[in-house]
Please model this.
Amino acid sequence: MVDTSKIIEHSEVVGSDGQHVGTVDHLDGSRLKLTKKDPAAHGEHHYIDLSLIASVGDKVTLNVSAAEAQKKAATA
Model:
């Protein structure tokens, strides 16, 4: 598990393929809440399970592709 204390609001979230998934809003329990203002969000908050995070640096990188992350993302 990654050190979630290193996750900074408004950091970019990318898939393992380097493609944009969203922008961090904040941590919400065991999920990462993405901003609804990001163009990829289509006006809705999306949530990514913390188990999908591979690393945290200047970006949050997931251990799945952007397309797979978008399929797994919850909207509520």
User: Anything to note?
Assistant: Helices lie at 66-72. The beta strands are 12-14, 20-28, 31-34, 46-49, 53-56, 59-62. Residues 4-54 form one domain. The mean pLDDT is 93.
